[in-house]
Amino acid sequence: RKEKKGMDFSRWREFVADDVPPKRRQAKKDNIKKIDHVAEVKNVQVGERGLGGDGMELDGGNGREALGSTGLVSDVSSKKLMNAGDASVTEGGAGVAELRGEGMQLDDGEPSIAAEINAENTARLAGMSAEEIAEAQADILNRMDPALVEVLRRRGREKSGGKKDEGKDKSRQTSGPRKTAKAIPGEHLTAGEQSAHSWKAWSERVERIRSCRFALDGDILGFQSSQEQPDGKKTHGESVAERDFLRTEGDPAAVGYTINEALALTRSMVPGQRVLGLQLLASVLNRALHNLHKMDLADNVEGANSEKAYDWQAVWAYALGPEPELVLSLRMALDDNHESVVLTCAKVINVMLSYDMNESYFDFSEKLINKTEDICTAPVFRSKPDVDGGFLEGGFWKYNTKPSNILPHYGEDDEEESDEKHTIQDDVIVSGQDVAAGLIRMGILPRICSLLEMDPPQIQKDYLVSILVALARHSPQSADAILNCTKLVQCVLKLLDRQGSTEIHSSMIRGVTLLKVLSKYNRQTCLNFVNNGVFHQAMWQWYLPAYTLKDWIKPGKEQCKLSSAMMVEQLRFWRTCISYGFCISHFTDFFPVLCLWLSPPVFQNLSEHNVLTEFSSIARESFLVLGALAQRLPLLHSVEQFGKQDMGVPGSYGEMWSWSHVVPMVNSALSWLHLNDIPYLCSLINGQSENTTHTPEQSCLVLLISSVLGMLNSTLERISPEGTPDSRSYCLPWIPDFVPKIGLGIITNGFFSFSCTEVVGHEEQLPSRGVSLVQGLCHLRCWGDVDASLSSISCLQRLVQLSCSVDRVIQRATTNSSEHLKESKAGLAGKILQEGISSLWHNDLLNFLTSLLPLISSQWPVLKNIEMFGRGGLAPGVGFGWGTCGGGFWSLKCLLAQLDSQLVLELIKIVSAVPEGLVTLSKGANSDNVTNPFANASERISPVLGVSLIAGPGQISTLERAFDILFQPSVLKCLKSSMHCLASQMKLPKTFEWDITEDEYQHFSSVLNSHFRSRWLAIKKKNPDKHARNNSAINKPKVPETLETIQEEMELTEVVNPPCSTLVLEWAHQRLPLPAHWILSSICCSDDADVSRAGLIFLLGLEAVSAAPSLDVPLVWKMHALSASVRTNMDLLQEDRSKDVFEALQELYGKHLDILCQKYYRSRSVNNDEVVRSVATVEEVKVISTHEILRFKEKIHESYTTFVESVVDQFAAVSYGDVIFGRQVAIYLHRSVETTVRLAAWNALSTAYVLELLPPLDKCIGDVKGYLEPLE
């Protein structure tokens, strides 16, 4: 900043009209290309803002700039910026030249060449009739190459009405990795969406916000009319600073401000105007965020109403987009000399990074999940589909901007060379792709460090630390940048220095949160914090002398609230360290304070002082910490086998907790199982939940019980792990006395209800009420708000896991059981305990599973609409700031759907645990459905398929369990049987008389499971970064140590849980959530014939049982999958079974195609609304509005004609006139296919001279009429 490198404003007079004579300006124009490249690119933004400006003000000392008369970009140029790939910062002087050529006026009033050409073309078209225009168009099309015509058409559609500069060519658009187009929401579109009306409509919605005017409180006042637009010499941006400076009476905000005018005020010479502009931006962004939060996820459905009066989604996308350059303005304002400007700027950045919304999401996720893993908030987009992947969507996620762009100087050896490459315009481009990355690249971290060193006001500290937390959650590279910033972490630690005071500030709480977030990225970072005393300094509140609950309540509710928030964050920081294997020995130091929160208090005292929620939060986190400690226990009986407690665990495994500490902790947990003694929970057991309103206290207590159950389950896992091989024959020598106590506590305290026959004669031993906690939680899940639903589903999941763990431990201890276990088996409760808890509450289990299945079926169609245009969101913000309705993937509803799906898999796993398998037990569960033996199979398969569409990053284990259920041999048998029923209904000539052996079922199950895991669940390996990260020391392999102790560590992994290396998940480098058509990958993405055969049988079976997600896959994708399968595996048609299945699928999809065609023609003769009401699927609603039902080029890929030509080549080369292959090729000649694809297929067939190899019309797919019209 001192040297002003690259900020050469010596030629600024070129851009000011009134100070430069026309002749001199013309000479300057001729010499533009001779200017140095670095200076020219950095002056592009000056050219954008200062062309023809007579009021431009530059203040070199403060880096501020007031906009000139054309401070707003013209409509044409702005529309151009809103289209991906159209706006590029090119080499040399092309950036200024293009801006001058986009319909703007030069300084001397002469129009540009592009404007003259456009005016001439418009005049010619105005003098031609419609027939003459059509004739001229036909003449042009005949003379030009069809491929070139298609390219020009696509470019025209992408421009959305903007005018393209003729001097721009393709080479300049792709010149250089960082000189490419400015990234905007929706830049990386899927191939089928680039020409879709949805993208055009979205662009128009965003562009409309340019003229939207806002009040100071963020409300929308209206839109500028066309009469209010500037006529070339006068703009609102020119006079906004002057009129607000002069207007001291009346209402200064009466007419409102546009976003660009607010940004102009942030660069005013008057500090009050700068504060006004920043405050307006904060109000607008805050209002947009809260309105996005109120929107429902269903609003993301394609074709949503774009004429809404208050389109807050578009407001958010425009504000964070590349055109306003918001990040650059905020970074400049943060360097202001006035404290009020800096404070307001920090507030705007805090809102722009969606700090509050994101923290709310992460707070809930840490409450619900025992071993929490945070997800990076950096914006992402999908990689484009390719032909090798069968054009299937659902590619690997990528970051909006390359991680190397966040720190441009990172790892550069030649400092001078890196300075030449780094320009302000590069920073602007990166900020248009990712606002958080742009802020870090522009040097916000050193500025925050210097501000914290100056001891700012407390509210400013809060905002600054919040910004650091939001940036730390962005990506691993952002966390590295914070750790590498000199003295920044030390400045945060100074906030935690109480200097003898017991007062707690919110900045201290957020400082602990920052340390926790940074620790989660890397085990070595956490170890450094522990060794350097950071952990000790952050946990100061747990080193205080022991105190009573009365002492804690005495300071008042506000102090209790702050104390609770601080202790919760400290416990989460401790839990993070425990997960890495550190700080476990601190348990004895913290226990005097910890024991206060482990026993049930006198709830009346807490309710009187209104601090029950705060107490419950601390108690919940305390038990979550105990659950994490329990996971660090050695296996109970493996310790005896080794013969000693100290087994010489290597340092890489960290510390272990001792079993001597477990028994008192379990006894404290058991005291929380007496539900009737806990207010707000006894009403759930008494059946009063239907008549009472759900309170926050009730949700907090349910979450507390959930953490208690999770801690008990973690302890039982270390007695007898779930994944032990030969579990039936594996016996435990003895079990602790608290195991049957846990089982009896669940049975006798009203967690479950039992049938009447079981209770007869033993009413005194069981709760007399018929309503159980499970039923109350089910009602809470179905009818409560999001908070209540999340807490109830978490508690239910922990309860199911704990009951299964109790059964597993007790069943394995039947031989040499303890005396307490023998005594506990007396009476009815003991009988239930001996037979197994989970086997005797089938009523609750099946009723709850029945109520959950419709929820799963309704959730996945809504969630799949979140991902629009191949992106995780519509704005380059972070987390919630991706700009999707309701928060999208970052909404609590999405988190709830994922928890529902996990619980459904848990319940189905229990149901299918018997040897007969899933389908047999399903038929036995409901004896009423004997008439349709496959109905229950469909009811189980459909929700599991729905679960596969809901699972997000980090839920690979959930999908693995789903795949294990779907591809069981018993399920494949059921699907094979259903195929016979389908064949008889369709009256197929072949009724699948062949059989599949048991070995083949096992083989098909294995190959399908293996294929889908490798295709969809694999993590893309990152390329080794040549620039080593600051914590790279932990990644160096210790070859000698590993080779010497590999056998010992394999044995040790059965004794001690190995610590994790990171607690953070990245959206990038993985594929989840899956696309709706993921089941087609086995057909069109595999070269293995066995995988394709099994995939065909599986797909036909799903169609036969009418599994909902498979029905929702568009017909065009199914037809494409069949074509791709024969293109890669001609052997499929050589084997009888796969040939029959392939033909049956062709017949089935042909009938579906005929139905859609009939509905299209009916829609032309009757009211369209009646047809829409009769349509079965959403896809049909979209399809019947056009006769092109099979829109391969639009839906699959823009270069689909090349794929069709390759299919025809394969048909001509190896098919030898095979009828089934010919039918698949002939579908591209159907009238429902796009004209370009039909033409390409016809040309390829005629060129290869294989038209005569096509089957006769009566053997083609679908109705004969589909091939006779149109007449060509």
Give a structural overview.
By secondary structure, the chain is an all-alpha fold. Among the domains are: 196-223 and 240-299 and 308-344, no CATH class; 354-364 and 396-410 and 422-521, no CATH class; 1123-1140 and 1153-1165 and 1184-1266, no CATH class. The chain has a two-stranded antiparallel sheet. Strands 3-4 form a two-stranded antiparallel sheet. The longest helix is centred in the last third of the chain and has 30 residues, at 1136-1165. The protein is globular, with a radius of gyration of 34 Å. The relative contact order is 0.06.
In short:
The chain contains 62 helices and eight strands. The chain is an all-alpha fold.
Secondary structure topology:
Blueprint: H1 22-30, H2 37-42, H3 44-50, E1 57-59, E2 64-66, H4 75-81, H5 94-101, H6 113-126, H7 130-143, H8 146-159, H9 170-173, H10 197-208, E3 212-214, E4 220-223, H11 236-246, H12 259-265, H13 271-294, H14 312-320, H15 326-334, H16 339-352, H17 355-368, E5 374-375, E6 380-382, E7 397-399, H18 415-421, H19 424-433, H20 435-441, H21 444-453, H22 458-472, H23 476-484, H24 488-496, H25 506-521, H26 523-531, H27 534-538, H28 549-553, H29 557-579, H30 587-594, H31 603-608, H32 612-631, H33 636-642, H34 662-670, H35 682-685, H36 696-717, H37 738-748, H38 756-759, H39 773-783, H40 786-812, H41 819-824, H42 827-835, H43 842-863, H44 892-911, H45 918-925, H46 935-950, H47 956-966, H48 969-986, H49 998-1016, H50 1039-1053, E8 1064-1065, H51 1081-1084, H52 1089-1105, H53 1108-1112, H54 1115-1128, H55 1136-1165, H56 1168-1174, H57 1178-1183, H58 1192-1195, H59 1200-1214, H60 1219-1226, H61 1235-1247, H62 1265-1268
Parallel strand pairs: 5-8
Antiparallel strand pairs: 1-2, 3-4, 6-7
